[in-house]
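Section 3.1: Structural characterization of target chains.
Under the original work plan, the team committed to producing a structural model for every single-chain target entering the pipeline before any wet-lab resources were allocated. The record below documents one such target. The sequence was received from the expression subgroup and is listed exactly as submitted; it comprises 191 residues.
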Amino acid sequence: MTLLLSHLEKLKEEAQRCSLCSLGAQRNKSVFSDGCEKAPIMFIGEAPGQNEDETGIPFIGRAGQLLRKYLFETGYKQEDFYIANTVKCRPPKNRKPTPDEKNACRYFLQKQIEYVNPKVIVLVGATALESFINDKKLTISKARGKIYEMEGRKYVPIFHPSYLLRYHSLEENSPRDLFKKDLVMIKKMKF
């Protein structure tokens, strides 16, 4: 086992025992990560849903299946990406995580970023965007597809796949079309 993996495994075990906010008392499993620990691209979503809470794997429900489908359709391989969330435990009724809950999990997310050391962080949806880009007026519709550089890293906001599930249009410039274009752009970025 490499030093990198041992740090991530230790962090995952710590997250499983975490009780810094009320979400920990309600979880079935802490939902830590999926993908390659040495990936150049890290996807950060909002919070686990019911399927993720049951399996301990992020983005495994309908929205996650759609994300993975589009990733593989646009040429990504499993070793290209690492997936995590802003919080590691499911909020009740899949509500948006509170600022206190995000702050309680911030340590775990920061350490994941440090250990994986991705070149690009993809902010999946509005909650992830709000967690990294401090601009209250910035919406995911305005931010998606743009590259933000902070602390030597590139951040690219994209729509959350759950948003795509509500909009089935495949027309040019539909949310699904823009989502695919963003994934292609990210894949082509120079690291």
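Strands lie at 34-35, 41-45, 81-85, 120-124, 148-150, 153-158.
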